[in-house]
Amino acid sequence: MINDGRGLLAAREEGSGRLHAPEQDGMMRTEIRDLFLTPFDDPINLINQRGGIFILQGGPGTGKTFYLEEAKRLAIASDFLCLHATGFREEHEIPFSAFEQFIHVPGIPDTVRSAVWRLVRRTASATPSGLAPARLLQDLFSALVAAAKHTGMVILIDDAQYLDADSHSCLLYLARRAQSHNITMMVAYPPDAFCDGIGDRLDLLGLPGACLLKATSLRENDVRTLLERGLGAERATRLAAPVHRISGGNPALAAALVRDLRVAGGIEPETPVPVGDAFRTAYLAGLARHPCLAKTVQALAVLGDDATPARAAQLLESCPHETAKHIAALECAGFLGEGGFRHPAVPGAVLGMLGAELASLHRRAAALLVAEGAPALAVAQHLLAAQERPDASLVPVLRRAWQQLLVAGQTDRALACLRLADQAELGEEQRAEITAELVHTLVWVNPLAAEPEVGRLLAAARAGRADCRALRLLVAWLLWFGRRDRAREVLVQLVETCDPSHADDEKRALSALISCLWPEVLGDPAVRGYFRTAQDSSLAPRYGATAIPPSRTAVVHSGRLRCLLSPVAAMEWNDDHEATGRRAASADIDARPFWKLDLAAVLELVQEGETALADRLCEEKRTRLPADEFPARHALLAALRGHVRGNLGDPRTASECAQAALALLHEQGWGVAVGLPLSVLISAHTLMGDPSRAARYLERPVPDEMWDSSFGPLYRIALGCYLLETGRPDMALNEFIACAPKGEDRSADPLGCSGWRAHAAEAYLALGEPEQARRMADAELLQGDRPTDARGRALRILAVVDAPEQRRAHLEEAERTLRGAHSRLPLAQVLAQLSQVDLADGHTRTARARWKEALSLAATCGVPHRLRPPASPLDEPLAPPQPAWAEGGQPAATGPAPRHTTGAGGLTEAEWRVASLAAARRSNRQIAAQLYITVSTVEQHLTRVYRKLSVRRRSDLPGLLGLQS
Fold this sequence. Notes:
Blueprint: H1 6-9, E1 11-12, E2 19-20, H2 23-26, H3 29-37, H4 43-48, E3 52-57, H5 64-77, E4 81-86, H6 110-126, H7 134-151, E5 153-158, H8 165-178, E6 183-189, H9 199-205, E7 210-214, H10 220-231, H11 233-247, H12 251-264, H13 277-288, H14 291-303, H15 309-316, H16 320-333, H17 345-351, H18 357-372, H19 376-386, H20 395-407, H21 411-421, H22 428-445, H23 451-462, H24 468-480, H25 484-497, H26 504-517, H27 525-536, H28 554-557, H29 567-572, H30 577-580, H31 594-607, H32 611-624, H33 631-647, H34 651-664, H35 667-670, H36 675-687, H37 691-698, H38 711-725, H39 729-737, H40 756-766, H41 770-781, H42 789-801, H43 807-821, H44 824-840, H45 844-861, H46 909-919, H47 924-931, H48 935-949, H49 957-961
Parallel strand pairs: 3-6, 3-7, 4-5, 5-6
Antiparallel strand pairs: 1-2
């Protein structure tokens, strides 16, 4: 164990009392010696006085032991006789245990050794403690005087507070007589040794000529000097302030930090000073020799942020005045700063000193805080640290802490509170409530992990001990994993036992979830009536995208959806959106189920046609969640946003979101809802021209129950699009037709997948059945006049199958519809078609603008290849004419021109395009319209072409260019 002072220069070798100086610390010996000796004066000056009593006073690590070691070295070097001993707490009850150490000092005269031995042997066995025979004391003193007569003598006593009573009485006897006989005495005490009223210590201090020397802390300049020798001037200047702050000016701690810095090597300017093994060892070693101070530090470490001197005293069952005195001493020594620890790594090291006592201290700390009415989180952290079965009276405290931790995003600690509460002696109903809360919390992390607790909760429900909230939770979990028989059982119990007029928000959320997971059950009259009560009691005015300022979040303005944000978040939102975006990440976290917070909100917006707002809501909710917490909720939000981005015609972002969702939550944890991210990925990769990757997602197994959920049609549509893309329109049509809703409510569409009719129309068109395509497109248009992606698709189909004179009207209506639906890729495709119509009608300026916008939208979505170019590209290079094919199936040598010049005649790219169209018998005006250039520019290009190719007539161009007429 490293001792005070010695820890700066040397460490005790394990199992011996010898000291060694590590090579890396040798270079700092001179600087440390000077720093330690400054407050006490140079020991050689005291030794040379040849008489006197010097009392060294200082806290742990302030250099008392170092000073005595240095005094011993100097005394021996100056031929003084040096007697030295140390008080040990474990030997406090052994008579003359300290003076007995003099016998083992090498080089002392035999007369002194014999006198000490007689005193120790006879007094220890024959005399009550503290009453040494005067004759033996006189013999010892005479021997000491005789030995000191010529050379002088130095007596050094370290940790004198632990001297046994006999040794202390003998020391006083010698001290009263030593000053006039060339005997110098140096005795080291802790800072509070003369404040506790112990008479013999006061007697020593009150002797004539006694001098009290107090240790002082190092200044920042002193620390800089130490650092310069060990680390160099540049690093010393930068690190002096933080090292001085962390060490509190304590020499032992400062030197230990220097050793840690050497081990760490170079650290960046903004990197905190590392606290390593050397610092922790020096800190604990200093406390080990001061048990009262150590207990105070341990109490403060156990109490943590709730530590006060009064609470520490209560925890230790000690006098508040004593505890305050210990804290002051620790602050003076640099072990504490302003009543707290100087570095966050220190409390953990201190608690590591405690064994079985640690749990007891935490339990007592919890009881203390409960009695004071402290916050639940403060009490819970001690109960968790104690890991003992709690009393039933503490369960409400743990449950309050669970809720607060869940709101704060600390799911692991929240679960720990509930599991600890579950160990208490509880009634069956209260245990069922805690089990429901465990399920509730686990579904935020991974719904599958809640399966054991779900089994317990289901048993409680069957025994009639589960409340309505627990029943709703059970229904949701069971349906999530497709366990419909049990879900129906619990749902029947819910309808029969729970008042439908209560908890409307939760019932609406559960209804939205059921409509996704098992819409068929909502056809039951009793179930439908139960949920309709909640839906009818909260009708609010319809909102629209145009009425909402772009700088605000629409959800806050919706009466129905305001509950989806936490109350704090809802109240704090204001016009300054940037300011609100900087709020704490936990502002949108509360203890409600995530399907109530997220799924119900997004579905309601999708059903209202507010797809862009649903996208914004998903993104805002994800950014407001802690990044490393609630993986299941993060995954659901990512999958929902992927679905929404797919509806907005953005397959690239959609695939990124869905891929992130599957990475956050394993497929087994998705249950029936796995169809959501998989359908997004299949559809997105199909649109992005990567059907092989889409096929890999199609190979993944899905639960059978998914097909009867609302995720089934989503998956079928994605599969149908894949089949259509890969040339199997008949199979694709079967998948689209299978999406037709079943049951009485044929308008049910919670996930916004009613576009199956438009997709079916596209399949019919690919099969060469325009009348069937028109019928499906008309059926889609009858679903409502709200702007949707499906409606835009249907209008595109009509533009193909209806009369040519109606094409522009259909496409322009499709453009308005898709702009209102914010559906970017379908809009790009419609704009590309409209540019063709404009080009054919001679509206070149409008055609150019629409084509540019189409290209921009398609590029933003990552699928520019999905656009079918007009007869000739507008602002892109023309696709060159197909080359003439020579015999053998190989193209003739006169193929398409390179990008800048041709091999024959050196035509530029622009000249090649004009010449190609001229060779195809286009007029100059037609060429100008097709290339969006003026007729004059066409004439100039042709003039240069004729000159380079040495031709006079347009009819000569096909042969020279290698083109078929």
